[in-house]
Design a protein that fits this description.
By secondary structure, the protein is α+β, with helices and mostly antiparallel strands. It has eight helices and 14 strands.
Length: about 400
Amino acid sequence: MNDTSHIYSVTDKPVFPNQTSSLRIEFSSPYYGHAENVKFSYTLSSAPQQWKDLQSSRSIFFNNLPGGSYTLIIKKEGAARNPVLASLKFEIQKKFSETLLFKLLVLAGVVALVYLYFRARLYYLHRERNRLEQVVAVKTEDQLKLIDQLKDSIARLTQLQQELEQMIGHKESVIAVLIHDIKSPLYFLNTVAGHLYKGIDQNSVTKNKEIAQEISISLNRLYLFTQDFAIWLNASQPGQIQKSEKVNLDKIIGEILAVYKEIIDTKGIHLQHQITSRTVYGDEPMIKSVIRNLIDNAVKNTPNGSITITSDSLPDNEFCQIIIADEGKGMTEEQILAINKYFESNNDIAAFPTLGYGHKVIKDFVHKLGGSISYRQNNPSGIIATLHLPVPGLIEMKKIQMSGTSDA
């Protein structure tokens, strides 16, 4: 009898449903003699070595047996006889959870869960790796930008250091040239003034006038020198805006020659000037300073002879050519090559030790004006200075072209 109260016969192998949770098996056995001399025990095929004694009961109880086939063996032992064994085979239908299919499904589910877990883990690791690679790429790019910025800063600092060193060297060279160029006229003025002071009463009026004229000429040169230096110093200031205007070449050459008229007449220099191209373009004080220094060099280095000043337009009409030729003591070929190289270069290293400050002014101003300057030998003696300055038509045309490009 199971817990469904259904009674099964034992003529056949009974099969109990899988809902069976308790099972009671009753048996009977005749015996002779005293009941206490007969002992019954049983064992189940699921645990054949475990025999359990039955006292006076003839009923065997099983609870919560799993599904499967069983063999129940009952042993009867008497006082004088050998044990008698009887067996009963029965079966309890297995639940679905106890079947092989269920176990395989559970195993498949576990395998699937493990597989999904590792797939999810790999997917997470893959995404994390991509994220970290992106982070590393961004960080690397930022670091490379910082490195490039650092390199640029180092390059700028190096350039600034070099420019500072050049400025310091330039300053020292300018000071040295200034001292050299100022010392000579000051010494001359001191000497002439001393002679005038000592002999003013003994000298004739004509002699005193000559001495006074020399002092006036030297003071005028010193004034022009300081004026050129002031213009050069102002043009060299950072951020200084350079003027660009039409300049009357005939006018400024006439003003310069008026300053040197007495010296030219005193030395007996024959002056010729023919100004064909009368207009140039640029900063008037700079242009005037350049031409004045060239004429000053010609007058100073020509004890006698002639000075010729001409101007005309070049064939391409882009520049005005101004030529100042003297018949003075001139220069050697080596000095001319050195000074022309100095004019073309961007450094301030003097071409030779005796090169004065005036050539520094000429070089810097000509570069700022967008022109060019060169020397060559004159025949039979002296120097020919050739100066090229832009003409108004070219500059105005370029401005119109730039304006048209910007409007487009």
